[in-house]
Design brief:
mainly alpha; about 0% strand
Length: about 100
């Protein structure tokens, strides 16, 4: 018979917890560590300084947040940057069956 069933989510098995790559976890951990160090050594005197101190963890958490049809927001931003910075060329193929090439006798 030779019927094989391949699961649609085979890439998830290569990820940590089915969601994260090693780089994602390193990025998020480093952002959280920077935030913890800032919380330990900076005085929280106002709301603005508190928000600024929490920004590294918030930004890293936003970048590793899963997004449908992409891996995460970091991948979306990288793909958008690549699309906007590389020249796009579109070749028109036409509507007809033979791409406008007809045999002449």
């Amino acid at each position: 018979m030779n019927d094989y069933l391949i699961p649609a989510n085979t890439k998830k098995g290569q990820l940590i917890l089915g969601v994260f790559r090693k780089f994602d976890l390193i990025l998020f951990t480093s952002g959280c560590l920077v935030t913890i160090v800032l919380l330990a050594f900076m005085p929280l005197t106002s709301t603005v300084t508190t928000i600024l101190i929490l920004m590294p963890a918030a930004i890293c958490g936003f970048l590793v947040m899963p997004v449908p049809y992409y891996h995460n927001m970091l991948t979306v931003i990288a793909e958008l940057y690549e699309y906007l910075t590389t020249p796009q060329t579109y070749t028109w193929k036409g509507w007809c069956y033979k791409d406008g090439k007809t045999k002449r006798k």
